[in-house]
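Example (one chain per record):
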Amino acid sequence: MFKDREDAALQLAARLKSRKLVDPLVLAIPRGGVVTGAVLARELGAELDVVLSRKLRAPYQPELAIGAIGEDGEVYLNDFAREVPGVSDDYIRREREHQVAEIKRRRELFRKAKPAAEVDGRSVIVTDDGIATGSTMIAALHVLKAKKPREVIVAVPVAPPDTLDRFRREGSNVECLFAPEYFGAIGNFYQNFDQVEDNEALRLLRESRGAKQTT
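Predicted structure:
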């Protein structure tokens, strides 16, 4: 079990330091992932930015992801999505519209703190504080790969083995500290898993930007 997001990120950074990275860029999935990403960027001497994707919530079970949507608006559904009670084409359309609006809100918010980073030709580390179904990460990876990075590394503290295999099939390298067969919720693997608010994520992004400019 990790003490908190920073503890997990420090352990993850130690694993990544053995890699030969080219002009490294850490892309974090907000909001909890920005805490992880800020530590990775600091420890690896990398630039920090965000990549925006949102899960599509199941009816009556908002914590369950039936899929996700990326910044490009494309929807990715999990294999089981159509089997979930209440899921229909109309429900997916309405949930997609809701999450598109949230992505737009977050894009406007975060781009005031930092312009979008260049991706082409760089070693890109995509991170979050943990992964369950992997839907939001898959959506983020599809958006990212269109921008022609040199390599993509999915780096997370904890994720189920089958989810990590999905990323490998997508062509990404994977670094994960803990991959338990029985997963449950991400918060189960942290002693402190307090919610990260927008202001905290923005502060970390601004501070990392300033540190990068002065190095």
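Caption: The mean pLDDT is 93.
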